[in-house]
Amino acid sequence: MSGELTLIVEMVTVLGAAATGGYLASRLQQPALLGYLLGGIVVGPAGLKLISAEGDIQVLSEVGVALLLFALGVEFSLKELLRVRKIALGGGSLQIILTILLGGGLAYLTGWVDTVPTAIFLGAVLSLSSTAVVLKSLIERNEVQTAHGQVMLAILIVQDLGLGLMLAVLPALTQPTEAIGIAIAGALLKAVFFIAGAILAGRWIIPFLIRLLAQTGSQELFLLGILVLCLGIALFTSAIGLGIAMGAFVAGLMISNIEYADHALDRILPMRDVFATLFFASIGILIDPGFLLANIWILTGLVAITMIGKATIVAMIVNLFGYPLKTALTVGLGINQIGEFSFVLAGVAQSQGLFSERLYGLTVGTTAATLLITPFLLKATPSWLQWLEQFPRFASLLQSNNSLHLVEFEEELTNHVVVAGYGRVGQPLVRLLYFQGHQILVIDNNEASLQTLRERKIPYLFGDASSQMVLEKANLKKAKAMAIALPDPMATRLTLKRALSLAPDLDITVRAHINDEIDSLYQLGAQEVVQPEFEASLEMGAHLLLNLGDSTYDVQQVVNRYRSGRYRDILPERAEYWGAANLEAAIEGLQRNWYVVHADSPLQGLSLAQSKVRRLTGATIMAIERNKQLYRYPTGEVMLEAGDRLLVVANPKEHITFANLLKGES
Question: CA–CA separation, 395 vs 401, rounded Å?
């Protein structure tokens, strides 16, 4: 078979295996990245032996690395980084340094590696986390705009920036001991001159060339020009010893601020995804499952030490920078994996002779394992922290720095409106209330977004709105109303539940994040639930109806009808909307229990409204199981019958009170 045909066959084989593995991983709700790795294992030397470890695929995978880092450079936002610059630059840099020192130092002192350069390289590999996996998980859970989501992304951006410096400096560690200092200085000098030249080119030359390409109107020429720019600069940096990855990243930065950046990224993304898939699959080709099984206990220990150690370092740093312990723990457990770019560093270490085949194999296996665990860990963390809060000692620690007053206000603040969350929804809401002359108290835990409140002298509490301690200081019993505009669905439910436990009659308006939350939030006691996407649809519809000649009164009646009906008339037709799985998702993070209504219970024969369960106990009945049928979100007129099983959401004290009420003991 000719060489050209062999390359095509190898590409089709690897991409086919990667696509199959990615599909299976996606069906199992795992990152597609893991499917690509498994696909490479299957067709590689350790599997079906269809692809050799040294071949053209490895060369093409270098293109994948270049395009990955080029796209990262284009997407890089200096504005976003500066918004959280303290935790990003200070915390992110400190995290990298401490992880290198502790990880590499521990490996060297225990004899696991025998040279200091190898230890430093290993520490650098451990210091990087997975931007791709973490960002995907945050998007899926609608947590990108949360405090912990913003901190995670800030640290990840600095890690990605640090990768470029590592690729420039770390290879110098392969020089003889007496020459390492000179080699590092030379590498830094090269990097400084290169970056200076890149800044000048990015300001005067690159925009001019990209503009010329865009003026031709040819999409093909534009794409070719972008590819030549990316790969050409990458080859140049490789030739001067700074590595392909650093050149590609800087090339992305050079066009990130010009007007054609988004179009360039849009053109390059499909090619990036294809070649990046080849890169990750090529890593799988290098993985030997037999070797990993033979070293399973060492691998397990490495995974545990890495994830626990890195989580501890990150959590301590985030807490040190003034964030609540709860946020710090969430961030620590969210970015305690080893990232996809660690494969790049490990590959460089192996090519430089610093990593033996055994060390490289264990590093790759540890990385793959941590990436596999991360999505589960991110999902379980809120529930784990919620469980810890049941214990007074842990509850006091988790809430110890959640009640910091940054703007003094009267302890007996009355007739005020409490707004929980000062993000994309909360900020316009606060402005509206402010200009209408209402007294406002804002609760938020994102220090970067609170400067406006300081300037306007608007009272606020810095902390988690779901914290019982913070809510108590908000004086909810004397508030006129409350709006919950938090970006985190679980924090929204907890805040609503705890606010009503403090002020049962408080008028609370809540933002719903997805369709399935609407009824559960009403059931938990919200006076009004607003779904932003549906509200946008109603406003667009209202404008259209007015333009089509309908009267203002008729349009308002239509809009009010849909709102009063909780958007049900315009909900998408989905059979699973009332499914039990969605009920579980709606009450995720809340403490729930099932109770049986016996014939001698004082609640038997009463409607939910007559029983006054929420008023008397603070508990909420989310579902009733009767004759093997489950009735979700029961309304006030539903009668309780002997034999009913009740799904109740409450805190531990409320559960005890409800159980006593159900038995007639209180």
Answer: 11
Phi, psi at 599, each rounded to 5°:
-65, -30
Work out the pLDDT band at 573, boundaries 50, 70, 90. very low
> Cα–Cα distance between 182 and 204 in angstroms, integer?
33
User: How far apart are alpha carbons 366 and 298 in whole angstroms?
Assistant: 10
Q: Sort 511 into a burial class: Cβ within 10 Å, 0-12 / 13-18 / 19+.
A: buried
% of the chain exceeding 70 in pLDDT: 87
DSSP state of 284: H
Interhelix angle 3-27/32-43, nearest 10 degrees:
140
Please check whether residue 487 is in contact with residue 421, taking contact to mean a CB–CB distance below 8 angstroms: yes
| CA angle centred on 79, ends 75 and 83, rounded to 5° | 125
DSSP conformation letters of 434-502: HHTT--EEEEE--GGG-HHHHHHT--EEES-TT-HHHHHHTTGGG-SEEEE--S-HHHHHHHHHHHHHH
User: What is d(CA 439, CA 414) in angstroms, rounded to the nearest whole number?
Assistant: 8
* CA distance linking residue 613 with residue 661, whole number of Å: 9
> What angle do the packed helices 357-388 and 296-320 form, to 10 degrees?
50
> What is the token pair recorded at 165?
């410096």
Token output for 537: 């649809």
Task: Kindly give the residue spans of alpha helices, DSSP state H, lying in 131-257.
Answer: 131-140, 147-169, 180-200, 206-215, 219-239, 244-255
Most confident of 97-101, 380-384, 629-633: 97-101
Contact predicate 284/39, CB 8 Å: yes
Sign of CA dihedral 131, 588, 419, 402: negative
CA distance linking residue 148 with residue 332, whole number of Å: 9
- What lies within 8 Å, CB to CB, of 119 at 6+ separation is 104, 105, 107, 108, 113
Cα(291)–Cα(167) distance, integer angstroms: 28
649, containing H or E segment: strand 645-649
The H-or-E segment that residue 372 falls in is helix 357-388
Phi, psi (5° rounding) for residue 632?
Answer: -90, 145
Cα–Cα distance between 64 and 567 in angstroms, integer? 46
Q: Residue 637 is which amino acid?
A: E
- The CA dihedral of 653, 659, 664, 665, to the nearest 10 degrees, is -50
Cβ count near 238 (within 10 Å): 17
For residue 574, the cross-strand partners are none
Write out the two tokens for 310: 């890195």
**Rounded Cα–Cα distance for residues 576 and 422 (Å):** 33
- Do 461 and 436 form a contact (C-beta atoms < 8 A)? no
Q: Could you tell me if 280 and 33 are in contact, meaning their C-beta atoms sit under 8 angstroms apart?
A: yes
DSSP-derived letter for residue 258 is S
Alpha carbon 112 to its chain's center: 33
Predicted structure pTM score: 0.64
Is the confidence at residue 403, as pLDDT, over 60?
Answer: no
Give every CB contact of residue 321 below 8 A, 6+ residues apart in sequence: 86, 87, 90, 91
Question: What average pLDDT does the structure give for the chain?
Answer: 80
**Phi and psi based region of residue 153 (left: phi greater than 0; alpha: psi -120 to 50; beta: remaining):** alpha
Length of the chain: 666
C-alpha to C-alpha distance for 529 and 92, rounded to whole angstroms: 38
Whether residue 148 contacts residue 81, with contact meaning beta carbons closer than 8 Å, is answered with no
Q: Are 366 and 306 in contact (CB under 8 A)?
A: yes
Asked if residues 100 and 127 have their Cβ atoms less than 8 Å apart, the reply is yes
Instruction: Identify the bridge partners of residue 418 per DSSP, sorted by sequence position.
Output: 441, 482
Task: List the structure tokens of 243.
Answer: 């590595």
Report DSSP state, residue 102: I
